[in-house]
Amino acid sequence: MTTSVLAKRSLRSDTIHYDAIIIGAGFGGIYMLKKLRDELGLKVRAFDKAAGVGGTWYWNRYPGALSDSESFVYCFSWDRELCQEWNITTRYLTQPQILSYMNHVVDRHDLGKDIQLETAISSAEFDEENSCWLVNTDDGHHYSAKYLVTALGLLSATNIPNIKGLDQFQGQKYHTANWPEDAALEGKRVGVIGTGSTGCQVITAIAPVVGHLTVFQRSAQYTVPVGNGPLSRETIDDVKRNYDAIWKQVRDSRLAMGFEESVVPTMSVSAEERQNIFQSAWDIGGGFRFMFETFGDIAVDEQANIAAQDFVRSKIAEIVKDPETARKLQPSELYAKRPLCDSGYYATFNRENVSLVDVKANPIDEITSKGIRTADGVEHELDVLIFATGFDAVDGNYKRIDIRGRNGQSIKDHWKDGPSSYLAVSTTKFPNMFMILGPNGPFTNLPPTIETEVEWVSDLIGFMEENELACVEPVDGKEQEWSETCCEIANQTLFAKTDSWIFGANIPGKPNSVYFYMGGLGAFREILDSVKREDYRGFKFKPVKTSNQYAQQGRH
Ligand code: FAD
Ligand code: NA7
Fold first, then answer.
1. Which of 156, 175, 398, 412 to mutate to test ligand 1, by most ligand atoms within 8 A of the CB atom?
2. Confidence grade of residue 512 (pLDDT, cut at 50, 70, 90)
3. Which of 138, 11, 94 lies closest to 343 in space, CA to CA?
4. pTM, whole model, 2 decimals?
5. Which residues line ligand 1 (CB under 6 A)?
6. Per-residue pLDDT tens for 87-120?
7. Which of 179, 319, 444, 471 could share a disulfide with 542, CB 3.0–4.6 Å?
8. Rounded Cα–Cα distance for residues 52 and 34 (Å)
């Protein structure tokens, strides 16, 4: 689409102008709104298609939904007072607890009046003439803004696999990330497809209440106990007292998980000591702790990885009573997906009302009106079918909006070989568009990364406003350079040798490329700092030419 067509279309009198439009009201959108509105004094509107704020924690209401980042680091650090006042009581947070926290933040900072819910953004086009974004909603309203911030979420666009017969099923079908309030599972014959982080949580939580549970497992998983439980008064007081030290450690670390990552090589200790270290991590709980606090090389060295695999496999054999079920539950692949933790996943398969179908050995042939038929001819009859099949991660929501940058270039086309960015927050040909958790950002506990990106973007917008600049975008070549950096680092890890959503491998046809910067949050922050210090190295700016017609139109 040409600029002139865009300009004509946008002359509509019903276009409402803002300085900035934010899409998404999860952790990213909420904090961005706070920064731009209250610190920079901009006129801002945030939109979310959900009926409430909270993003991930609005949508993922399935039984057992729990953060696997610990509660003291799964929150905003920027509200220092709230960190002192908010009563964390357990080591991890359930979905209702996180949602209530996020609603509280929104109320406390009076952000709700600038958040428009139940409004999906259908398209956003950059108007070069006026250096602004024209944004349309799916209910036919039109907005414009100098800045567009996409806080669309990286685990948000749901993935429902295209299995033959999907629409034939006469029972209830639920995706975990679109969970209805009135889902009734008590006494029902329930099937779950998917055994990732979400599958492990939902399977463990619903097994005691359903009539019969059939788990359709494609990949067996390494998972360790989560270790949830009440926090002692002393721990809670320590967290509050050590606020500065904790957040400094988090920001300087690789994973931002609130613990020191080990640098000890797995094979540098005796077999007995190794066993003790793994056992102690198993007893304490936490997936990231098990993979990264025990030893420093499990994610990069194959021998170290095998030692961790062997330990988990031995636990499965110990916990699961039926040897055939234990065998099916034991993974043989590398231990190199996002590390999982659970509240009794393997033991769930000792229940009489739970059965496991290995759909790698015995694939799903089709979904029938009554349930699922597998290749062995068995029809597993179900009242409810749960898809715990994950997400079109990272760029999924970008592909679901018609986003067009310079010269009408669509983002789908720009990212046809896989999504890319310069520093996770920007992409060439899409001026004044800033992404929160865009592609090739740090692979971490996410709130600290979100804060890092929001603060950096807010500083850049502040810089533009102060210097009366109209447009910013990365210099040609910078995006490619950043992709190469991310690729180089990812290839040093075993994660790159395993199929998972982290590399786009979970969606048929999705480019298998690099979606994360695996160099850690501390290093990422240093890079962002240096870019800013050097007058936003790698970005090009355009000075203000004329006053913006939409701004005038919208304000008068
Ligand atoms: P989101 O919370 O995903 O918010 C994005 C919002 O954008 C959504 O509300 C969506 O409705 C909205 N949106 C998208 N497209 C449009 C559109 N076209 N128009 C209008 N609105 C739109 N991370 C961790 O660090 N630790 C954890 O323990 C952890 N646990 C998780 C558990 C689950 C089950 C899931 C799914 C994710 C988990 N995550 C975890 C990742 C989690 O997504 C992030 O921690 C964080 O919540 C992301 O916040 P966000 O604001 O970037 O995106
Ligand atoms: P994941 O980790 O992508 O897991 C999805 C699961 O669904 C996984 O076990 C998949 O098997 C399975 N799957 C997907 N498609 C199919 C088909 N067609 N047939 C059978 N099984 C299938 O998503 P989650 O929601 O669990 O977790 C994503 C992140 O969100 C998580 O890391 C947390 O951060 C929150 P596969 O392994 O591909 O063989």
1. 156
2. confident
3. 94
4. 0.96
5. 23-29, 47-50, 55-56, 58, 60, 65, 67-69, 74, 120-121, 151-153, 155-156, 177, 198, 397, 401, 436-437, 445-446, 450
6. 899 999 999 999 999 999 999 999 999 999 999 9
7. 471
8. 17
